[in-house]
Amino acid sequence: MDRRGHRGGGLRGLHAVGCAEVNSPAAKRRNHGLGRMLLVALAAFAFSFALVPLYRIACEKVFGVRLAQGASDAQAAVPAAGTSRWVTVQFDGGVNSALPWEFHPNQATLQVQPGKQYETTYHAKNTSGRIIVGSAVPSVAPARGSKYFNKTECFCFTAQELGPGESREMPVRFIVDPALPADVKTLTLSYAFYRNDTLTAQANAGKHAAAP
Q1: Are 154 and 135 in contact (CB under 8 A)?
Q2: What separation in angstroms does the CA of 79 have from each of 3, 86, 197?
Q3: Transmembrane region positions (predicted)?
Q4: Among 194, 183, 113, which Cα is nearest to 159's?
Q5: Domain ranges of the chain
Q6: What is the pLDDT of residues 105-154, one digit of tens each?
Q7: What values do phi and psi take at 87, rounded to 5?
Q8: Helix, strand, coil fractions of the chain, as percent rounded to 5
């Protein structure tokens, strides 16, 4: 008993009872059960993340369905500029039957690294006896790779005028975008040259008008 007449054993008694309850078999079973529930929750959380790649693999291997990749997956699949990745660029060219020109690439293929600028040339010759103006229409195959082929300089940007028997080497400068899908290893650049009747008529009319 303290000086105010209270018994001092009350708190000690409550503390002893509390400790006994915490250390009792029932309390231990409750704590063990809570621990197991926490482990189950963590396992379910981790499994939910694992389901995404497993589902993608199942769709691709079993059903032949390729799921669209997320932004992070797509970026991981694209090699950065300056890496050891190489892409083959093939060159092709032809003329419409109404255009009396010779036209062809000066090289058939070129090995390029995405992100770097390259140059190639095409040869054109007017085999007729008059001025001819032609316009080139480019195309890139495969179609899904065309948006990754960027021409920085091209004779196709403007009409080309060749006098009788005149020939010309026409440059093309281009960059393959590093974002080109990794499974696209070859691009084909083709040109089809067409006769520009309006500009051809104007060029020949101007020549005759200038003649004495």
Answers
A1: no
A2: 84, 10, 45
A3: 38-58
A4: 194
A5: 12-60, 87-210
A6: 999 999 999 999 999 999 999 999 999 999 999 999 999 999 999 999 99
A7: -125, 135
A8: 40, 30, 30
pTM over 0.70: no
DSSP 95: E
Q: Kindly report the number of other CB atoms within 10 A of residue 161's CB atom.
A: 17
Sign of torsion, CA 196 202 208 212?
negative
Burial level of 134, CB count in 10 A (0-12/13-18/19+)?
Answer: buried
Sequence-distant (≥ 6) Cβ neighbours of residue 156 within 8 angstroms: 135, 136, 137, 138, 191
Q: Cβ–Cβ contacts within 10 Å for residue 124, how many?
A: 24
Of 146 and 69, which is predicted with more confidence?
146
Instruction: Pull the structure tokens for residue 132.
Output: 């001819």
Q: How many residues are recorded in the chain?
A: 212
Contacts with 126 (C-beta within 8 Å, 6 or more apart), sequence order: 100, 101, 132, 162, 163, 164, 165, 166, 167
SS3 (DSSP) at 174: strand
Which is it for strands 87-95 and 186-195: parallel, antiparallel or unpaired? Answer: parallel
